[in-house]
Specification:
Length: about 700
């Protein structure tokens, strides 16, 4: 029901929340009238303080806040309805990053990660309750822990919480944990090591304070106001002792639409803060692609005999309408076999349905089954077997109340014809070429906050046989500022080899760079086993030989793989030559989609990395309904924090975006954005061209 202006005001005055019945329990669920908004630090909150609220699942916010002491850049993603994650960079405008001969006049930058989990969801009488950690891993510039509750009352959203660390520096209440043990009474200044570690020994220690406030949604929908009582006194602030004329902060927010907000705040009684938030939702964003209409089914079509004219029309339709690249049609007895590589539709079921419609309209007489086989890299991965009678009932329309037919799409191991009666194929060209724009980047380094390279990548492949491919790629540099990268060696007493920190020299060696030239064999060993062998210039910095093996059973939520590689470092001054350094590297990797949350993928690897260090990597990602994937990883090895340098260990996050969200044509190709805070040598893996887990994606749970 759409509310008029008058009825909206009445709803506000009467309580401002709506209720729906829970289908399972019959318990009313209440939705606050005031929708969540972002704080200065990123994540749902008021100004300086958090609230217990969560954004809608999948919401992604890009935030910027600016005042005289700080600039905050943050990305906040609602990973689950109950879990909020935030990554933030802070520019401390009153401090220099380091020595002038290394960092120039760059101001101090700090990176931080925040997590907030909802412990209790709001009901009519109880509030949302959340537990949060700010700046959980890093230098501890703003490290805080808090427990906070938020309750809606019409157009008002009230918050009350208790914080430790940065949000509780005023110490306006006694730390309750201090009464239980003296060790909670003191909190050390700053994190230990070189940053990047989670120092749990500091949690809930030191002074604590109450904080709270209210957010008010005015009857004029774009405008809302915020008022908060701040639990921080800013006397020990990293930007210097800041004057706090009052602990009351006030602000206003103007909502530009579903895509963003403009914020203005007056904080500490003397500081004006301006900000902008841009947002989207990874769960609800939809493709722009204009898909061709599905082939209409005509049950009265006369049977065909796979004559050349009919087959050619079917092959064209399979390619242009069903998205199957290089399709083929074969017949064996009462079964028609269709195969090809799906290049258009991320929803594989849609591609299979389109292929079945195309074949049903010109089906050879006596056909009882259609088998559609998906390939990748010329490998048959999975077959979809459909009964012709069931397809006829489905495409003709299932009567209301009737049971849908079975055997419409039965997934099984790849099926090949034994005795081919007729065959037609749209032969794949042996040569293939593609190019794409490239953005290499490094964010948050002490030399320069943002280092980048804009380039164009080109690739040529020659398919020698179904299993063997030779291919290469080049990178044409357009512009980069990696001349600012000053990290030339690990600490003097470190013995860790430089496997990545020659990046400046690689970029400066030539504007046209051979990034890859390799011979590859990918094949199926049977029963879910796949293997690839490769050799040549494997990536920008290393050449060598290697092998990967994976076991991926059909329609299972797990897989296991291993790779081993002997590689030699390419000379950073002349990449066609080899440097003296070589190493054997490889990993054993497990892949798991939890049965209770199969939109998540957990990858755990253990092995040896390029610097000869040994350890493991954990990578957790979530694929949203839109197809966007967001993930984070961390690698811990036996390299000490001292030897590794700033950052202590390798970590980062990534976002992978299906290009059909940006294109008007259907495609299942993807573009990625990766963020790794620092370029260092520990925990670095070989950047292989192919991943067998990605190649065999069609075999996973759909």
């Amino acid at each position: 029901m759409k509310l008029t202006t008058l009825s909206s005001m009445i709803a506000l005055s009467l309580g401002g929340f709506s209720s729906v019945a829970n289908a399972d329990w019959g318990t009313p669920l209440y939705t606050p009238y005031v929708t969540p908004s972002q704080s200065d630090f990123g994540g749902v909150g008021l100004l300086q303080t958090p609230t217990a609220r969560m954004a809608p699942s999948g919401e992604f916010n890009v935030n910027y806040r600016d005042n005289d002491q700080y600039r905050f850049w943050s990305l906040s993603l609602q990973l689950m309805p109950w879990l909020e994650s935030t990554i933030r960079y802070t520019d401390v405008r009153t401090l220099r990053y380091g020595a002038e001969d290394f960092s120039g006049d760059q101001t101090y930058k700090d990176k931080g990660i925040d997590l907030k989990a909802r412990l209790w969801q709001e009901t009519r009488w109880t509030p949302d309750i959340s537990l949060g950690f700010r700046d959980i891993g890093g230098t501890g510039l703003f490290d805080s822990e808090y427990l906070v509750a938020t309750k809606a009352a019409g157009p008002f959203d009230f918050t009350l919480g208790m914080g430790w660390g940065y949000v509780g520096n005023s110490g306006n209440v006694t730390n309750p944990f201090c009464k239980a043990s003296d060790r909670f009474c003191h909190r050390d200044e700053g994190y230990s090591g070189s940053g990047g570690n989670i120092d749990s020994e500091r949690f809930f220690r030191g002074p604590s304070a109450l904080f709270g406030g209210v957010e008010y949604q005015t009857p004029w929908q774009p405008l809302r106001f915020k008022v908060e009582y701040d639990g921080n006194n800013y006397r020990n602030d990293r930007a210097g002792a800041l004057v706090q004329s009052t602990p009351i902060n006030v602000g206003m927010l103007y909502r530009l639409g579903d895509w963003g907000d403009v914020n203005l705040g007056y904080e500490r009684g003397n500081t004006l803060t301006f900000g902008v938030t841009l947002k989207t939702n990874f769960e609800t964003v939809r493709s722009l692609a204009q898909k061709p209409s599905k082939p209409a089914y005509n049950p009265d079509t006369q049977p065909a005999n796979l004559d050349p004219q009919v087959s050619r029309a079917q092959l064209t339709a399979l390619r242009d309408n069903a998205g199957l690249s290089s399709p083929s049609i074969e017949r064996d007895g009462d079964t028609v076999y269709v195969s090809g590589e799906q290049t258009d539709y991320r929803d594989r079921a849609e591609g299979v349905e389109r292929a079945n419609r195309i074949m049903m309209n010109n089906l050879p007489e006596g056909t009882r089954q259609i088998v559609v086989t998906e390939k990748n890299q010329s490998l048959p991965l999975i077959s979809h077997r459909s009964d012709v009678t069931a397809l006829d009932q489905t495409f003709s329309g299932v009567p209301l109340g009737a049971t849908p037919p079975e055997n419409v799409d039965v997934r099984q191991e790849p099926q090949q014809p034994q005795h081919v009666k007729a065959e037609a194929a749209d032969k794949k060209s042996a040569f293939s070429f593609d190019w794409s724009p490239v953005l290499n980047q490094s964010i948050g380094g002490p030399e320069s906050f943002y280092m980048y390279q804009m380039a164009v990548s080109g690739r040529v492949d020659y398919q020698m046989t179904d299993n063997w491919t030779v291919g290469g790629g080049v990178l044409l540099n357009l512009y980069n500022n990696y001349d600012k990268f000053n990290f030339t060696a690990p600490p003097p007493d470190s013995h860790i080899p430089q496997v990545r920190t020659h990046i400046r020299e690689y970029f400066d060696s030539s504007d046209l760079y051979l990034t890859n030239l390799q011979l590859t064999r990918i094949g199926a060993l049977g029963d879910g086993w796949y293997m690839q062998n490769y050799g040549g210039y494997l990536e920008m910095m290393f050449a060598g030989v290697g092998s990967e093996l994976i076991y991926r059973p059909l329609d299972k939520q797990w897989a296991i793989g291993a790779d081993v590689n002997w590689v030699k470092q390419r000379d950073w001054n002349d990449p066609m030559k080899m440097a003296d350094y070589s190493v054997t590297t490889g990993n054993l990797t497990g892949y798991w989609q939890p049965w209770f949350a199969d939109e998540f993928l957990v990858k755990v690897s253990v092995g040896r990395y390029l610097a000869g260090d040994k350890g493991g990597t954990i990578d957790i990602s979530r694929r949203f309904a839109s197809g966007i994937t967001a993930g984070a990883f961390a690698t811990l090895t036996n390299v000490s924090s001292h030897d590794y340098g700033e950052g202590s260990f390798t970590k980062g996050f990534y976002i992978s975006i299906p290009l059909d969200l940006l294109s008007t044509s259907p495609t299942n190709t993807r573009a990625g954005f990766n963020w790794v805070p620092l370029t260092r040598d520990g925990g670095q893996a070989l950047q292989k061209r192919y991943s067998l887990y990605d190649v065999t994606e069609a075999r996973g749970v759909q």
